[in-house]
Amino acid sequence: MGARSIPSLVLFGVRVLVVALIAAVLGAAGLGLVASAGGEATPRRVVADGVPLYEVHPAGLKPGERRPGVVVAHGYAGSAKLMMPFGDTLAGRGYVVVLLDFAGHGANPKARTGSADLQRELDAAMAHLRSLRDVDNARVSLVGHSMGASAVTEYAAAHPEVVATVAISLPSVPEGHPKNLLMLVGQAEFPGFKATATEAAARIADSRAVTIPGVEHISILYAPRTHQETIDWLDQRFGGPVTQEAIPSPLRRPAGAGLLFAGLLVGLYPLARLLFRGRATIERFRWVLLVPVAGAAIVAALVAAVLPTSWFPLDSGDYAVAFTFLFGGLLLLVQRGRPGPWGRVPAAVALVAYAAVTIVVPLQLGFTNMWPAGARWWILPVVWAGFALLSYAAERLSRGSMLGILAVAAATVVALTAAAVLGLTNGFLLLVVPLLAVLLVLQAGWSTLLNRLAAPAWAIALAGSLLVAWPIAATLPITA
């Protein structure tokens, strides 16, 4: 027996080591991409008039030289970090860039109230841009996405000193006549965005509408064509390119974040093998359980719509969080049998910490702001509790079957989509649901591995739900 166990132990160690090395290589490659995304230009965080900003200055400035300046504004549920590829592109082409976090978004701790605040915050960002010693005050422009596109077109129409504006995924035709307006819309966006760009181009002089092929509302931000059109438009309005440098790829930051995220996901295997050394037999999923799953999802979706959730200051998230508590609670009520063991607390704590690193670090470094600000510090535990309850109910129901976990995830996605379509909640949830679906699928894979290693259901639920809850709590806007 000993002669057989030693080779098995060696094989186990080699397997774990190889997987850990793969995870390390992926993580290192991701970190390298993110670190090199902006070239020699390094973003610097500042605060002006209470508004969190990033400054990005081009490399190679001569003493006393002044360059054109650009303020970049994000969309609904976005952040300055989400728009950072435009900071890379514009600074790489010689522009001085300021990116802001609107109230209720990113690192801004203030609650979102209305469009008047957007204009005030744009004014603060523009004033800061003009105060910089390397900015030519006669050559300033604006770039905005979605909600930010509406804000910058309104601002440009009221401030004729703004030389040019680029509006990406503009939701509605702007009032007034902003000078030199370029509108970019994704080929796969909702028809209303295309109609807006076409109508505005026909009404506003010195404007142009361009459709970016193969992208939708979010991926348009990372399309090389989007960045090239933006640079070409601004270069022409400012009398030619500031520099002849090639613009960096807008995909470097998200690609780096993706590789780092993949490395951390792969790294779960060696960590889990160290924390949980058991081996469990997974039961087959009983398809008859789809009936209570569907019924509970329908009831939860209808009841969540009438609950007094307006006190919860997470825009579009109040309904979703209420749904998770209701859906999870109903699924637990229809189940029989005792819950599983509640041991292995130290291992569970390590697993939850690893889940936090897995979801927060890659997204913070290469995608959008993940670090809670203001009220998000107490919102995060509430959102996590809702998804943890739902996840625990799914674990109990499925008995470790990936099909069972996916069935509950599918019911969640379908119910939230239907609620948004039927007007039971904010229609913006339709843009959030695809991301939620991806996170729920990742959580299902996470759950499958841990179940095979006989990890406790409660620990799997706590860690896996954090992968879903943190991005929601960190990105949806905070309202007053």
From TrEMBL:
Start and end residues of each Serine aminopeptidase S33 domain: 66-177
- The signal peptide, as residue positions, is none
Question: What's the protein name?
Answer: Serine aminopeptidase, S33
Q: Which domain of life is it from?
A: Bacteria
Organism (species): Paractinoplanes atraurantiacus
Mind listing the UniProt keywords for this protein, alphabetically?
A: Aminopeptidase, Hydrolase, Membrane, Protease, Transmembrane, Transmembrane helix
Listed transmembrane segments: 12-35, 255-275, 287-307, 319-335, 347-365, 377-394, 401-422, 428-446, 453-473
InterPro entries in the cross-refs: AB_hydrolase_fold, FrsA_esterase, Hydrolase_4
PANTHER family this protein is in?
DIENELACTONE HYDROLASE DOMAIN-CONTAINING PROTEIN-RELATED (PTHR22946)
Question: Which Gene Ontology MF annotations are present?
Answer: aminopeptidase activity
UniProt family annotation: Belongs to the AB hydrolase superfamily.
